Amino acid sequence: MTGVRPSPELLAVARRWIDAIPNHRPNDLRNLMTEEGHLQFVGTADDELWTGQQVREGVAAFFDVIPELLKHEETFAEAYEHEGTGWACLNHQLIFANQPGRLFNVRTTLIFVLEDGAWKIVHRHGSVPIPNIEMTGTEQTAIADLVAAARSGLSFDQHEGFASVMFTDIVNSSGMAAVMGDRLWSSEVTRHFAQLRDKIEANGGQFVKSLGDGTMSSFASPADALSAARAILRALNTPGGPAIALRIGVHTGDVICSDDDFFGSVVNKAARITDTAEPGQIRVSGATQAMLSDRSEISFAGPMILALKGFENPEPVYVVTEA
User: Fold this and answer.
1) Distance in angstroms (rounded) separating the CA atoms of residues 296 and 311
2) Could you confirm whether domain 5-137 is CATH 3.10.450.50?
3) Kind of pairing, strands 214-219 and 159-170?
4) What is the pTM of this model?
5) pLDDT for 303-319, tens place per residue?
6) Is residue 106 within 8 Å of 128, Cβ to Cβ?
7) Taking a C-beta distance cutoff of 8 angstroms, is the pair 83, 7 a contact?
8) Residue 26 and residue 39: Cα distance in Å, rounded?
9) Where are the domains of the chain?
10) What pLDDT digit, counting tens, does each position of 71-105 carry?
11) Cβ(4)–Cβ(38) below 8 Å
């Protein structure tokens, strides 16, 4: 093919992509990828072939579960371009902190197109000689979770959309009901739900429903969900009322809406994450944290890799440390 030439520019872009992974720069990862639906992400395992916007939204959380690196050395790199298309191939040697005695070779191929004057990744293929679970010690499921939600079947009266789902749950509600009596406790829970609805709606959310002593709500963005969660915790202990303690959980992805209710794996995972929280604590999924990691007003601890009931693979879960 005539006109193919080495591309120092593309090699620099490819290296920025690689460097963003261990240094946890989610915006760099997303911004270097195309926003078009033909984006492809290919890994080593049989089921690691994903396409579309779920890749762009989930890629940071996918990489975020990789353990700390003791060694990250480039051993091969080249890039070429031709009339608005380019490609790069890189090889790196890695040693992980949790496996200091093992050396891994990781190969990455990136295909680029020139979009409005900027190079964008349209295809990524990463290859390692062993499965991710053996190399990193954990499954990387963030993109798979988003894709699975997006592929959920739709019926006539359903529609789907991207949302952050938040659950709240009152800690030790049965014990408080026993102390206060059913009638007084029921009145207090009603007042509590009204307070939650105010905070949720004031932060752009939709109060979906109450669930016994808990609630479910949805938000257009994870930032709105965290703003509501933090506002709820701040407003809880009003003078003269019982000291209600809440656990709160948030997960983000494609959900299915029907008759003003929400369904799908995103909803189920948000509920399971809530179950893991301590009293007075907000916990979020890896997908949610990845979309908020560039927000200076929000800090996180973690991740903790937790097994969630009903889900085959462990999930990285973060604790919001500033509320």
Assistant:
1) 31
2) yes
3) antiparallel
4) 0.51
5) 899 888 888 788 899 99
6) yes
7) no
8) 17
9) 5-137, 159-320
10) 989 999 999 999 999 999 999 998 888 888 888 88
11) no
Look at the block and give the residue holding tokens 């062993």: 130
**DSSP-derived secondary structure letter, 307:** P
Query: pLDDT for 265-308, tens place per residue?
Result: 888 899 999 999 999 899 999 888 888 877 777 888 878 998 88
Which CATH architecture group holds 159-320? 2-Layer Sandwich (3.30)
- Report cis status (omega within 30 of 0) of the bond before 316: no
Please provide the average confidence, as pLDDT, over all residues in the chain.
82
Residue 243, Cβ neighbours under 10 Å: how many?
A: 8
Bridge partner list, 87: 80, 111
Q: 224 CB contacts (<8 Å, ≥6 apart)?
A: 164, 203, 204, 205
The answer to whether the CB of 61 falls within 8 A of the CB of 286 is yes
Residue 51 CB partners (closer than 8 Å, separation 6+): 37, 38, 39, 40, 41
**Residue 224: CA count within 13 A, CB half-sphere:** 17
